[in-house]
Amino acid sequence: MTVPIISLLKFPFYLKDDQIEAVNAWMDNNYRGTILYSTGTGKTEISFECARRLVETYKKNDELMRTATPSKSSESIHHLINQSDISRSFTQGEKINGSYTKHDASSYSHYSNLGDSNSNSSSINYSISFFNILFLVPRVSLINQTINRLIKYNIPKENIGGYFGERKEICEIIVSTFHSVIRNPILIKRSSMVIIDEVHLIKDTSSSFKKIFDYLVEDPKKAILGLTATLNEKDFRNNSILAVLPPLRKYPIREAVVDKRLAKPVIIPISVSLTDKEVIEYDTCSTKIRNISNKFKRYDAKSMTLLLKKGGFASGMAKAWFSNVRKRKLLLSYNENKLLAALDIIKNRFPTEKIMVFSETLESIERLRDLLSQHNIDSRIIDAKVKSKTRSYILERWGIDFNVLLSIHTLELGVDVPQVRIEIILATTSDINQIVQRIGRVLRLIEGKTIGLIYIIYVDDTTDNKVLGVINQAINPNTNLKPDRSVSYQHLAKGSFVPSSSNPKQHDGMKSLYNVRKNKTTTRETKIQRAIRIVESSLEDSLVVEENNINGEDDKTANTTEIQSLSNDNLKCIKPQNFTVKSDTNKSKHYTVNIENNTCTCADFSYRKSICKHIIAAKLLSRF
Length: 624
Known about the structure:
CATH superfamily of the largest domain: P-loop containing nucleotide triphosphate hydrolases
Largest sheet: 8 strands, mixed
Number of helices: 23
Shape: globular
CATH class of the largest domain: Alpha Beta
Structural class: alpha/beta
Helix content: 25-40%
Radius of gyration: 27 Å
């Protein structure tokens, strides 16, 4: 008898207690649901363990093993394969994506492979087991990554197939893409368990992706697991996900940082201004958007889409509305001062560091690439058009041939680059899923890495402002704490970059990123700038060190004044209150900071009795 190949799964480590809890939650929910785990905290391993545990559950029941059912019922595998749609596919030679296959279905009763392929494609081996697993990923680039991880965990390579493009391997475990499975729904029907990575992408508004759920719900006994870092449960577009795969266990960024499973994300917002020409363009678009919205009493994309479908004059106005929204977004994406601020971070602050830059439009990253080139800084762009092999080569040479990697959305999902500690986000997005994915790129832990610096460059007094609230929600979900106004994102951004000239060639001698508007620097802004430099220096040498918590209590001890309630788990955390902060000018000196009382032992605080740079730096690094 052939044993399901997932039974051979072996991790070179023990799963964490929270991961076991996630597996149990899925098992207890009749083998359906979504696990929401932050990037880098092991959601893929959870999915593998769910599959292994499901098979083990069958093994514990002799009757279920004898009938080899892939569900809790007593239906036999003979009934499964004799269903007309599946039986036709493998006994009558149904066409799968242009290639015919034909197998002896009777061999199912012996749990053995189904003969040889009679496919038009060369070198394709088909094998069917009574427990087939389909692992769906959003992009082709993630297929080999998933296959390699299975192989790493003791699953034989010959039992894992990739299914996309011209590569069509039908094995006991198949890794395929959303697009491929839509064209070949038999992959879902033949599977005992379907795992959907980045399930948040299958929204109800995507008619093609939504077909995946249509195929899934045809068999109420099929085991289904959704994986994602975040899922907006208030978004109507996620109704199908919530109905079929409700959230079961959440492990957000904050909880993972507290548990030291991720590096601390240090958010540094940098506000910039529109140029005079850009102000005119932005105001023109905004006026048109506002006038159309007021005329039809429709103020969002959803309601405007309904107007678009009416045809006639109303439809034309809706098209104009969307056109101006796109123009405004494009303008913000490649705002001249945004690109100059990014240049300054890259050139003056971290000239030798690997840096990841995200933007919303191809035009903006192409302009940034050209600007960097003018300053003899080499960079590479990875977008959806870059083929998998080329992408792998670029990632291999990153940090060797060049240090700056530019992307739109391609690198948000699944790319494992733990060495990266610095990320620049050119705003214009208020999508919390994108923000969580992007932040997660620089939080994977490796030896010597404790923080990830994330610069958010946004245009002040525009729709870009929304990004700050979204970021706060992304890293502090369901928090009831009032924001600390003494070092809020908005206050930090006031020490922002505004170039003295719009000509990039005149910026060879740029001073610091943190020049303030019109070079009028207030005392507070100067302190913020210096505090950020202390944080930046902590990448190499920890200048801010947690001394102890109040009463020496553990991080997870409840405190009535500082409590963060996390998700459904009610995990309570307190911030450390006391820090030792080294002088950024004289490393032999150090100061004691208490962020609860806003006190410091430095001369600046002793003299002025106001928040100093050491307090601000400690607060920046104590958000977790």
